[in-house]
Amino acid sequence: MDYKKYIAQKIKVEGVSEDEVYSSIALPPNPEMGDYALPCFKFAKVLRKSPAIIAQSLAAEYPADDVIEKAEAVNGYVNFTINKLALARETIDEALSQGEKYGSSDIGGGRTVCIDYSSVNIAKPFHIGHLSTTAIGSALYKIFNFLGFKAVGINHLGDYGTQFGKLICAYKHWGNRDEVEKGGIHAINDLYVRFNSEATEEMEHEAREYFRLIESGDKEANELFDWFKELTLKYVKGIYQKLNVQFDSYAGERFYTDKMQPVIDELREKGLLKESEGAQIVDLEPYGMPPCLILRSDGASLYATRDLAAAIYRKKTYDFYKCLYVVAYQQNLHFKQVFKVLEIMGREWAKDLVHVAYGMVSLEDGAMSTRKGKVVWLEDVINRCVEKAYGIISEKNPELENKQDVAQKVGIGAVIFGALYNNKIKDIVFSYDKVLSFEGETSVYVQYTCARANSVISKGGVPASYAVGELLPQEAEVVKAIAAFPQAVQDAAEKYEPSIVARYAVDLAQKFNKFYFDCKILTAEGDKKNFRLALTSAALTALRNALTLLGIGVPEQM
RNA sequence: GCACCGUUAGCUCAACUGGAUAGAGCGUUGGUCUACGGAACCAAAGGCUAGGGAUUCGAAUUCCUUACGGUGCACCA
Asked: Which of A14, A80, A133, A235 has the fewest CB atoms inside 10 Å of its own CB, making it the most exposed?
């Protein structure tokens, strides 16, 4: 229930709208003061009275009931205390009855949200630089579906460009089928890296020719390309499975090859296309941006051309409500330009395109560089995390069944969580020490909390009924945190910020652990036992749902 | 040079979008082991929110400015 709204409806201030009251309501700095607070300072001018006096009269006039049990004036604020007993009952009942749907909603109303994420390049293995887009996009995918939207996950494959001519050239000179079959994507990548360091002028020329052959439908060139693509997809799908990531479409750049001409024609018809230095551009000077390149001077299309075609195609195919591009902030200008071009083409839905930008990943000794071999492969990170988790499990819980399975959930969870815990715009300096740290604000902490809760419940069961008595502060904090879950999910969607859910999970886990430490559950007296079991189960539900939205598994035991 | 982004405790980060005493984790120091799982809990120390202006009842949050760091700016994607 929306307590702010409930309060706002009952507050009448002359010359101030209910909405204004609603948006003024804040949270007190500590729970002893109350659960919501209305600062009265801005009303002082309208009412020509001091904030303290206004707060006093608002508090005195406020009709307390069984939802808000107290309103009191302190220092120009009106502090409201909600009835925790009612909140506890409502929250726990909701969490227990909705189970894995707790926190979901139908605010999406079935509207479609396209999410372009991960978008791997053919022939390039997954390194930690690809993790952010994958983890953030995947979490948004799950979050939007959870809120009643229809999410469409799109892997906009990087499968177009002269680099594939280079790749084929390198293969023809140095590669052979067995080696590539055996070495998979890393073998392909090695060929590409070798080309970049060893290719002669002559080979560069050959590479351009091979790319042209791919384009013109040459059989051999396309067979090779398709083979590389197949190997790449097989490889990345293995990683996606580990990371619990799904896509509805793998339509990459090449898919738009035959969809660009209509866009170019339209630009020309609308008089937006201009020649400049031999190239065809859309002038964005009036909007304070450099021009958007549409065709090179040799007539070839560019990145932006394909993105224009892709956006139009997606609108036509999915009729999206929003279309998100989960791409690093280096592309800020590119997307600003593409969105602007669509806008001046008269596509009013250009406003529904959103660049969900995130920060860069670098290594402790500087930027990653595939060529110099300064890369951290994602598989290695996953393996090391899983190994470490396995080691700890073997030490702490040697009797545990499915140790390998649990180690996967814990280790991979740590990798994903590391990419999701902070504001997405922040740059990340990758370090093994950090991902391998399983203490404090981590997914492992949350998973451990779940395992504990689960253990209590397997011993005490979930009570069929329970009575709510006077609450201790530790219990009340857990109740409030559980109740905050649906809003946290909505905030995360609104801001395209999965870290809100990640932080929520840690916050609830901290509160639960404090409750767990201070309050006996199984040996509690009288009504308390059933209540605490129910509370534990509700907290577990919220924790589990939060981790699931992030794509992180929740082991029963660990 | 221009544009955008960032700067909060020793380190990594929060702060409900302008509210009360700026909070966590890691690290440090000291506690909690007859436990429903110690991958936990408690406490202490640690801050002029990069510097300077402005706006107002009130600023980490808005505006201007300086410094430092990052990114982008024409035929790569």
From this structure: A14
Instruction: Catalogue the E-assigned strands of A230-382.
Output: 273-276, 279-282, 292-295, 322-328, 353-358, 361-363
Nearest nucleotide (C1') to the CA of residue A451?
Answer: B37
In A364-449, beta strands by DSSP E: 428-430
Measure, in angstroms, how far nucleotide B51 C1' is from residue A484 CA. 39
Task: Give the Cα separation of A354 and A321 in Å (integer).
Answer: 11
Sketch out chain A's domains with CATH numbers: 3-82 (3.30.1360.70), 261-300 (no CATH), 393-550 (1.10.730.10)
The predicted model gives A110-136 an average pLDDT of 96
Query: What angle do helix axes A443-460 and A403-420 make, rounded to 10 degrees?
Result: 130
- Cα distance between residue A336 and residue A316, in whole Å: 21
The dihedral through the CA atoms of A503, A506, A512, A518 has a sign that is: negative
Angle between helices A131-146 and A219-243 (to 10 degrees): 60
Residue A114 in contact with residue A140, Cβ under 8 Å?
A: no
Interface confidence (ipTM) of the complex: 0.96
Residue A289 has pLDDT above 90, yes or no: yes
